[in-house]
TrEMBL record:
Chain coiled-coil ranges: 72-102
Boundaries of every HTH merR-type domain copy: 6-75
Biological source species: Candidatus Aquicultor primus
Name of the protein this chain belongs to: HTH merR-type domain-containing protein
Keywords: Coiled coil, DNA-binding
Length: 127
């Protein structure tokens, strides 16, 4: 429901506290990407409205210009991508650690032990 495009531009603008023309400008600057009906009517989701509110907070509340907002969003996307990569690497590391622990266990169970001077044999049983 959060990503479902349901609001026409006038409703989305009102929810975000902006003029509809501002939404068109933000779309041209690729800050927002509303879905379109077959008749090309823009439809905004709640996620879009929240993003519009964030843009407004950054520009009006913090004085960030639109180029800065674009850069912030690019960096935010990059962070999310890197976090996904990091999670995948952590899963792979855990899997490899498990395999390594299993192999180490096998080695410990059948380790070489000295029997006589200069002679090594495989230990079959755990000590």
């Amino acid at each position: 429901m959060y990503d479902e495009p349901v609001y026409m531009i006038s409703v989305a603008a009102k929810l975000a506290g902006m003029h509809p023309q501002t939404l068109r400008i933000y779309e041209r600057k690729k800050l927002i990407d509303p879905k379109r009906t077959q008749g090309s009517t823009r439809l905004y989701s709640q996620r879009d409205v929240d993003r519009l509110k964030l843009i407004q907070m950054l520009t009006q509340g913090l004085g960030v210009n639109l180029a800065g907002v674009v850069k912030i969003f690019e960096l935010q996307d990059e962070i999310e991508e890197l976090q996904g990569l990091m999670e995948a690497l952590q899963k792979q590391t855990a899997k490899l650690r498990g395999a390594l622990d299993e192999e180490l266990g096998k080695i410990q169970q059948s380790a070489l032990v000295p029997m006589r001077r200069g002679e090594l044999v495989l230990r079959k049983e755990k000590c």
